[in-house]
Amino acid sequence: MKKNIFGLTKKRRCMVRLQEIINFLRPIDAGYELIRLGNPDGDGGYLVPDDLDGISHCFSPGVDKMADFEKDMIKRGIACYLADGTVDAPPVQDEMINFTQKNLGSEDTSPKETELSSSPPTMRLDTWMKESPYTGDLILQMDIEGHEYEVLNSVQNEILRKFRIIVIELHGMGDLVRRKRRSKDRIIYEVLRKLSTDFSVVHVHPNSVAAIKLWENYEIPGLLEITFLRKDRIHNPKPIKKLPHPLDRPNMPGHPEISLDKFL
Known about the structure:
This protein is α/β, with parallel strands linked by helices. The protein has one domain: Rossmann fold (3-Layer(aba) Sandwich), CATH 3.40.50. Helices cover 20% and strands 30% of the residues. The strands form 7 sheets. A 7-stranded mixed sheet has the order 8-7-6-13-14-18-15, with helices on one face. β4 and β5 form a beta hairpin. α1 packs parallel to α6. The radius of gyration is 19 Å and the shape is globular.
């Protein structure tokens, strides 16, 4: 027999929370055209509102082999702070780029060495920001392979409000509907509820590399690229009725775009 708490079975409570998560992620038209920054044709490109004037710096944890997004930031006069403890240097060198060889995490730690492995040091988002001079509004672009939840859950809202735009790749979304890992819905729910206090979702794009997970009447992409805009920047919000956006692109050749019709 399924455990029943306050009249709700565990399965029912999971479904309720899943629907609330979907509601958090439902995008709106915030009154700005969306522009594509980064890779114009695939992975590493993201849609953001054309509201970049006055943004002084981009914080971009998680360094890959390409830095097209950061290059587009620099073209617009936006300096970039990059961080990654798993690489020696960023893939692009520029006087407007500052690199820290640490991973982002929920606490500040030192390197850990054992005979079999080593783990790079970590730093909190707010620690990184305190050590990085900036003025004005900021943009956060974060793809850190599932660590985004602990990072965002560990910082206060007043820190997050310093960012006008937040672009995040949310990992592990398929775990929401996998029985053995469904408990992850709580941390995802808490993080999205926290963000929804001061931000609204203005774009959602499923990473086409990850498979869709099916559960009941729900279709959940395994990876989601989400763009948030701070609520004080929003003008005349309207619901978005069609996705993908014309500027969206599949993340990899041979992996077509994923429909989000039911999501809307």
